[in-house]
Amino acid sequence: MTISTCISAMSYVLLKVFLNPGIVQNLMILLCIVTAIFNIIMTIIVTRYFELRKGARVNI
After folding, report:
1. What spatial distance separates the first Cα and last Cα of the chain, rounded to whole Å?
2. Which terminus in the chain has less CB density within 10 A, N or C?
3. In this predicted model, what pLDDT tens digit does every residue of 22-45 receive, in sequence order?
4. What is the pLDDT of the chain when averaged over all its residues?
């Protein structure tokens, strides 16, 4: 969750720096924000309902 939030924050900063202000920049920033929120929600759901608090392991 932390890595995903950092990547979304970095993409937000890069969009603000390199894209000209306008509708495309606003849509891309909205996409970054929605993606970050979705990643946080999915992390909370997966750790709570699939009991991955102890760590995810694959047993073969």
Report:
1. 27
2. C
3. 888 888 888 888 988 998 898 888
4. 80
Our separate counts of H helices and E strands in the chain read: 2, 0
DSSP state of 20: P
**pTM of the prediction?**
0.66
The DSSP result for 40-51, as a single string, is HHHHHHHHHHTT
Task: Give the total residue count for the chain.
Answer: 60
Q: What is the per-residue pLDDT for 22?
A: 83
Q: Tell me which amino acid residue 9 is.
A: A
Q: What is the number of alpha carbons within 13 Å of residue 13 lying toward its C-beta?
A: 5
**Which residues does 5 contact at the CB level (< 8 Å), separation at least 6?**
36, 39, 40
CB contact set of 36 (below 8 Å; sequence gap of 6+): 4, 5, 8, 9
